[in-house]
Amino acid sequence: MKFFIDTANLAQIKEANELGILDGVTTNPSLMAKEGIKGEAAVMQHYKTICDMVDGDISAEVISTDFDGMIAEGKKLVQIHKNIVVKVPMIKDGIKAIKWFTDNGIRTNCTLVFSAGQAILAAKAGASYVSPFIGRIDDSGWDGMELIHQLRQIYSIQGYKTEILAASIRNPNHIIKCAEAGADVCTCPLDSILGLLKHPLTDIGLAKFLEDAKKFA
Ligand code: G3P
User: Fold this and answer.
1) Could you tell me whether strands 129-132 and 84-89 are parallel, antiparallel, or unpaired per DSSP bridges?
2) Contact 171 CB / ligand 1 (< 6 Å)
3) For the chain (length 217 residues), average pLDDT per consecutive 10?
4) Å from CA of 9 to ligand 1 middle
5) What is the pTM for the complete model shown?
6) Cα 124 to middle of ligand 1, angstroms
7) Does the beta carbon of 168 lie inside 6 Å of ligand 1?
């Protein structure tokens, strides 16, 4: 399973990248706004900076909701860097746009996916990635991980090439469960990635080793 970080925060991207396990970055308009980025030129520059920091796929989301607008935005975004993947919302014009991008050699990430039906359409349109939002499904009282299992089964049976990119990750256990369910990619906040490091027995064991090491130092 590939690890992406789900943020537009450069310090967090740097910290995750320095671990040496980072395969890419996903952003969205909310994450970009959180960094206080304003205006098209600043947005484009921010994506460029991320692409220069991380050697992997970088998802940049369109904000248009009509076919022509999404195509125009996507064409500009892919000029930034070869690693840009155009993130497109799961709406009717979004599916048309994904098909157009696919036919024109532009890679896409279909976002805001909450059902198997939506994920089937994204795969049929040729999306490179599909982003099921598991945390938001959990927040609504359903089980987001069930969707990951269902998509893995459907995509494997049907031979769809679209990669399942589990998004809206809330904690380290989500990451473990995604790996178990066969997600191709998990895009996570930095805290959830760092949470994987932690175990109290590791801390206790290390303290003991360091104490014993003083006996022969
Ligand atoms: O980038 C899409 C997704 O990961 C959003 O997560 O935490 O806003 O539900 P969240």
Assistant:
1) unpaired
2) no
3) 98 98 97 95 97 98 98 98 98 98 98 98 98 98 98 98 98 98 98 98 98 95
4) 14
5) 0.96
6) 24
7) yes
